[in-house]
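Batch job 17 of 40 flagged for manual review because the log was empty.
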Amino acid sequence: MATLSSAGPEAAGRRTDPLTLIDVDHVRFFVGNAKQAAFFYGSAYGFQVEQVSDLTTGNRESAQYLLTQGNIRIILETPLTHDHGASEELKCYGDGVKDVAFTVFDAEKAWEQARRNGGDSAYEPRTVSDARGSVTMAGVRTYGRVVHSFVSRRNGYDLPAVKQGGEFAPGFRRMDSFALNAFNREHPCGLKFVDHLVGNVELGAMNRWVSWYQQVLGFSMFKHFDDKDIATDYSALMSKVMASGNNLIKMPINEPAEGKRKSQVQEYLDWHAMTPGVQHLAFRTDDELTSVAELRRRGVDFLAIPEAYYDSVWKRVNHQLETHGHTAVKEDHQRIRQLGILVDADDEGYLLQLFTRPLQDRPTLFFEIICRRGSQSFGKGNFKALFEALEGEQARRGNL
């Protein structure tokens, strides 16, 4: 998701709307051991383990590691006490996403507006500050366990400074000696920013949460897929893609649909204490082949795409591109096949994408690596092949 520019005459108008979202400020994971998780995400996915807030910095409640890559910021948080809110959540859900935080001009005003719009407060505005500046945060609850925090930054903690490597917030210190960081700078994975975040909700709840995003945050529907679009002979799901008013932030919402067997959404819910949550984060890259090749070299475990997929994909994709006057896929076709990458096209262009297997033992959270060459869709033409691959994994786990 590209950052909203604050320059020019339109910026003043945007500032009058408290719920103007500037960027995904960060995504907060609750994890069982932040130090070990930081090493995993640094080693496997090339994230810089950039800063830490823990006992050594005076944080007596939790250990928090800031991971960065491009414009992606992930906070890995582990509770240090049994009564910390994350302790019970980790027991129920395992590692996963707790908070999708948005940068805004004024966090308190954004929180107040969301409350007026019907949002339920997760926590009231709070500000931390020091000589460099301040960070104000406030949160509202969305589906299941997930929170949306509003974050406003001042002076030395403003977003441009953070992007340039400045301190994330008071109480964080740099991890200058973390050995993997130098390796990752020399061998980049090329992940640029969060393209979208997908939430899984229970059967019959999708439209309720679509309405919530419309009413509370002012989002609108960007795309809609039903069980005819996303189905195989055995399972199906329905999805509606919600987008912020400036289309910078996209959040698809999935619910299971009736099928002969269990869908991936239902499997997620079964292993997530029947609680809705974030199913996957999609990271944008400018070079899918280079990113996927480097991630595979590092040992990232991707879904296995059936060989038969490549027998028909080029005919389908080329027909779409020719029909709408777009140039053909420029990436090497054989290399795409070797790397197991999915390809799709629509009236705006094409995209390349690939999905990892679950990031932990519970079959819940995973990542998507996506490159867009004009297409702003989500790979509708790949849904059948993707579902068949997912069903193969579910069968291997005994969950189909």
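Reviewer: the log was empty due to a logging misconfiguration, but the result itself is present. The longest helix spans residues 309-323. Unflagging and moving on to job 18.
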